[in-house]
Design a protein that fits this description.
Helix content is 41%, strand content 8%. The chain is mainly α and 170 residues long.
Length: 170
């Protein structure tokens, strides 16, 4: 709970600083992972500052970064770092991105509680997400098809998962 509060305060300070430059309207766009804390923080800020209107939406880290580069948002929420080429493109368009970390999230693979499989290795997870392991019996489970569920490809969390699970789909 303390980490969530600290993250909310960090977002609040970010939004507060940005609103000074954005006059009375501030557009925030990006990560759906960051969206809930961003919405709660924006509501709290607007309640204390009724002359400020904050429009906040999700759509994925990539979409938020693109909106920042295209100057259609003042704040891009992202659950990943900007790529070197995104920073270069932003600067070429007169946008100088400034990173403010508000939280660090964790990626946790889960299986249904009735599934007896536990302690998958990174290699096994990688092979599952590459489609090379397709049945739970291949990793000590029942003879059942594995159904892989993942985030949208525009999500920073998706990109982090691809990187951390070593799937080769980077």
């Amino acid at each position: 709970m303390l980490k969530i509060l600290a993250a909310a305060l960090a977002v609040l300070s970010l939004i507060g600083a940005a609103s000074v430059f954005a006059a009375e309207n501030l557009v925030v766009n990006g990560s759906t992972t960051v969206l809930p804390i961003g919405q709660a923080t924006a509501e709290a800020f607007m309640k204390r500052n009724p002359n400020v209107n904050i429009s906040i939406s999700g759509g994925g880290s990539g979409n938020g970064i693109k909106a920042l580069i295209d100057k259609t948002t003042q704040v891009a929420m992202s659950s990943r770092e900007m790529k070197k080429e995104e920073i270069e493109l932003a600067k070429s368009k007169g946008v100088n991105p400034l990173e403010h970390k508000v939280a660090i999230d964790a990626l946790t693979p889960v299986v249904h509680p009735t599934n007896p499989v536990a302690n998958l290795t990174i290699e096994q997870l990688s092979l599952i997400y590459q489609g090379k392991i397709r049945n739970w019996k291949e990793v000590g489970g029942k003879d059942m098809q594995i159904v892989v569920i993942s985030r949208d490809t525009s999500s920073g969390t998706y990109e982090s998962w691809q990187e951390k699970s070593f799937t080769g789909r980077r």
